[in-house]
Amino acid sequence: TTTTAVIFKGGVVLGADTRATGGNIVMNKNCSKIHYLAKNMYCLGAGTAADTEYTTRLMAGKLELLAMSMRRIVPVKSAVRMLKQMLFRYQGHVSAALIVGGVDMLGPKIVSIAPHGSSDNAPYLAMGSGSIAAMSVLETNFRPDMTAEEAVKLVRDAINAGVTNDLFSGSNIDICVITIDGAQVIRPYEQNQPEVLKKANNYTFPRGTTTVLSQGVRKVDYHIVSTEIRKT
Ligand SMILES: C#CCCCC(=O)N[C@@H](Cc1ccccc1)C(=O)N[C@@H](CC(C)C)B(O)O
User: Which of 135, 144, 189, 221 is most open to solvent, judged by the fewest CB atoms within 10 Å of its CB?
Assistant: First the structure.
């Protein structure tokens, strides 16, 4: 996996490839590694697919309850603290390497969280097996206060470096742009993997293809046991 995130003038841009592997086999050519956490917050996941999916979905539920009880937009740092404390508790056995990105009352923010629970704040981040290739692009080309377009191009180039050089990264590039006005997930942003045809052939057969030997209506009587509403 190659995942990257950058901060730009008005928000954050997240990016990921779409390859899932099992050994040397591509298990999924178009999986989604950008997970919803809240309206203002998304999370990139690398590592074990089951762990990143479960962890982010669990966190999204907790954040929704927190937002309701606080009647506030949940700050990115709250989600980061909850995630890292859970991962630390599991001592790295939950193999989720995450980058949380979003915009809150304190401004745009991206934080990487390693499976053991350590976290890093920075204006640009990369995680996953392709992160070395991606980071080479970020280190070379990152500038503070980029426009959204420039940030998207930089993230795209960084993910493309992983797709090109890391065999555990590949297929499409998905992008997510988050500003104070909201979040936009672009999937795919760049397609290297054609869509899988949903139905290769047409399986609707004309009426009469199968001979009808007999037909009838079977009467079933349901006994009404009790109509009283049980007092609990
Ligand atoms: C579909 C399917 C099965 C996915 C298996 C599965 O988690 N693959 C992992 C690699 C791995 C990890 C631990 C044990 C074995 C295989 C994988 O592809 N991780 C990518 C990210 C996830 C979210 C897709 B990336 O980090 O390379």
Answer: 221
